[in-house]
């Protein structure tokens, strides 16, 4: 017998109607839980009147805004699936995603009206709902429709295993796939993060500049905090001075924040960082890349212990995390992303599917109720072995149960018959004082089959050679892991979540350059 999924906004509207739920950093709009539930009910009614029902998909392309959450919760209330589109993609790529998802309607703002119109034409989506100053022809006005709509209450018969989201992966390693979330996976992600990141505590307020088309924006902090009745303030884009001002001066104060290392570095570089009041910070997650010890210490000196986590769209998204125990800063400086989430099982396996001992590197396999149930219209067996989701990521585990990422198994290269994981090399090279940013890729080599190329953004004014790097890494890395080529660049190519585009690096820097080889 299945259990019904409870409606978040209706629940909190009845228990804390006057408490803050959502706000917008740009224009100061704010919604209490009572107001949010009323708007969610009206959005649900508008969508229902457009013919959207249980099992249908609702595509959305928009900047960060509280209305993104309204559409998400309205879809969940109707039993429809929310499909936010990555606006960093081309219109053609977004249309390809919609060809796969076959949405019954598309919702958008005025910033993306032209793109939404082109997508609708390409995919033959006839139902459009839009907000903003310029309403395109053929679209229903979001705010006007809400004002005229009745209230659609919570729907009975929606069970915990019913899907809620189709979140398409970034596609940097292949064609995007739609990872499925359900009411159950969202609930268990909230339970996992309540243990490590305090979302169930009263007064949680999350500042979110991360894009809401991605699990990093939706599921890492925002949805778990909303599940427990906290508040989320959206920011249209990440701007370091504006983020610092909000972190230090919001009312109610910001308690939770999540960003990639480059963003934390940019905030810390602002003139007011040294004097900003960050005393209210509870949990500031750092993910997407391994943070340098210097960056971790810089924030620790301001009283904020950044919390490394590991996960991904399909993984809850949080699978491992460092909590606030006494050893956390030391472990974080060593590159650890913490121990497993309470309700997630982790295995590290060799290519034959056998568990590797502590200290050895293996592929991460995950099992648990927060893990995706599969991909939209994909065969589950292609990505799971029994109940275990094969992540494609590699890591090692120490004797205390702390995990250390070694990169993607697809990024692994063989040098002289030995496996080399780029992230492991990057973690060492990033400690060099002349290295501001670094990525390692495997490139062909006539003698060794493959060798590592270190693509480095040097620190301002620093001089760096391959010999400098390898002398520094000596004793920290086996000789076969040391890079045989150095490329100096102004910046590394990254996607919207901060992940390095290694395919682009390998294609661009695969030929010898002025630094030569060792």
Structure commentary:
The chain is of the alpha/beta class and 518 residues long. It has 2 domains: 8-397, Rossmann fold; 411-509, GMP Synthetase, Chain A, domain 3 (2-Layer Sandwich). The protein is built from 15 helices and 26 strands. The strands form 5 sheets. Strands 1, 2, 10, 11, 12, 13, 14, 15, 16, 17, 18, 19, 20 and 21 form a 14-stranded mixed β-sheet that branches. Helix 8 (215-227) links the parallel strand 10 and strand 11 (231-234). Helix 1 runs antiparallel to helix 2 (33-49), helix 2 (33-49) crosses helix 6 (142-148) and helix 4 (91-101) packs across helix 5. The longest helix has 17 residues, at 33-49. The protein starts with 7 loop residues before the first helix and ends in a 9-residue tail after the last helix.
Question: Which characteristics define this entry?
Answer:
518 residues, alpha/beta, Rossmann fold, 2 domains, 14-stranded mixed beta sheet, 5-stranded parallel beta sheet, 15 helices, AMP-dep_synth/lig_dom, AMP-binding_CS, AMP-bd_C_sf, AMP-binding protein
Report a brief summary of the structure.
It contains 15 helices and 26 strands. With 518 residues, the chain is an alpha/beta fold.
Here the CATH topology of the largest domain equals: Rossmann fold
Q: What overall geometry do the principal axes of the alpha carbons give?
A: globular
Which runs of at least 5 residues are low in confidence (pLDDT < 50)?
511-518
Calculate Rg over CA atoms.
23 Å
Mean pLDDT: 91
- Kindly name the structural category: alpha/beta
Strand-residue proportion = 25-35%
Number of strands: 26
Task: Report helical residue fraction.
Answer: 25-40%
Give me the CATH superfamily of the largest domain.
ANL, N-terminal domain
Number of alpha- plus pi-helical segments = 15
Q: Report the top-level CATH class of the largest domain.
A: Alpha Beta
Total number of distinct structural domains: 2
Largest sheet: 14 strands, mixed
Family: Belongs to the ATP-dependent AMP-binding enzyme family.
Domain AMP-dependent synthetase/ligase: 11-376
Keywords: Ligase
Protein name: AMP-binding protein
């Amino acid at each position: 017998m299945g259990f019904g999924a409870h409606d978040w906004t209706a629940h909190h509207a009845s228990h804390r109607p006057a408490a803050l739920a959502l706000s917008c950093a740009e224009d100061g709009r704010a919604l209490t839980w009572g107001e949010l539930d009323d708007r969610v009910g009206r959005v649900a009614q508008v969508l229902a009147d457009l013919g959207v029902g249980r099992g249908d998909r609702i595509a959305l392309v928009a900047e960060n805004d509280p209305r993104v959450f309204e559409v998400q919760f309205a879809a969940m209330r109707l039993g429809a699936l929310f499909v936010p589109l990555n606006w960093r993609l081309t219109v053609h790529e977004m249309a390809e995603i919609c060809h796969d998802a076959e949405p019954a309607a598309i919702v958008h703002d005025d910033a993306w009206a032209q793109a939404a119109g082109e997508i609708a034409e390409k995919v033959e989506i006839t139902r459009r709902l839009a907000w903003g100053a310029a309403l395109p022809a053929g679209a229903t006005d979001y705010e006007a429709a809400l004002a005229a709509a009745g209230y659609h209450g919570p729907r009975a018969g929606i069970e915990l295993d019913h899907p809620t989201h189709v979140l398409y992966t970034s596609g940097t390693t292949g064609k995007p796939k739609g990872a499925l979330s359900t009411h159950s996976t969202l609930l268990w992600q909230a339970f996992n993060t309540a243990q490590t990141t305090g979302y169930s505590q009263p007064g949680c307020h999350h500042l979110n500049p991360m894009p809401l088309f991605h699990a990093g924006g939706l599921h890492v902090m925002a949805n778990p905090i909303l599940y427990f009745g906290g508040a989320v303030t959206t920011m249209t884009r990440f701007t370091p001075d504006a983020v610092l001002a909000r972190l230090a001066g919001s009312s109610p104060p910001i308690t939770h924040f999540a960003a990639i290392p480059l963003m934390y570095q940019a905030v810390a570089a602002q003139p007011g960082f040294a004097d900003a009041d960050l005393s209210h910070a509870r949990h500031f997650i750092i993910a997407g890349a391994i943070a340098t010890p210097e960056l971790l210490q810089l924030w620790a000196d301001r009283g904020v212990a950044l919390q490394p986590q590991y996960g991904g769209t399909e993984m809850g998204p949080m699978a491992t995390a460092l909590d606030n125990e006494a050893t956390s800063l030391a472990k974080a400086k060593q590159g650890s992303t913490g121990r497993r989430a309470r309700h997630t099982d982790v295995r590290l396996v060799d290519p034959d599917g056998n568990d590797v001992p502590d200290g050895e590197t293996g592929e991460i396999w995950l099992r648990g109720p927060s893990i995706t149930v599969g991909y939209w219209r994909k065969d589950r067996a292609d990505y799971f072995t029994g109940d275990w989701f094969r992540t494609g990521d590699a890591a090692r585990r120490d004797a205390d149960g702390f995990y250390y990422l070694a990169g993607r198994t697809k990024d692994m290269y063989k040098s002289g018959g030995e496996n080399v994981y780029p992230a492991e090399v990057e973690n060492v090279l990033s400690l060099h004082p002349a290295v501001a940013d670094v990525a390692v890729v495997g490139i062909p080599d006539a003698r060794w089959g493959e060798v590592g190329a270190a693509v480095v953004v040097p620190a301002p004014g620093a001089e760096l050679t391959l010999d400098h790097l390898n002398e520094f890494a000596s004793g920290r890395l086996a000789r076969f892991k040391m890079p045989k080529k150095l490329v100096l660049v102004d910046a590394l190519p990254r996607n919207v979540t901060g992940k390095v585009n290694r395919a682009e690096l390998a294609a661009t820097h695969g030929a010898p350059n002025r630094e030569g080889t060792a």
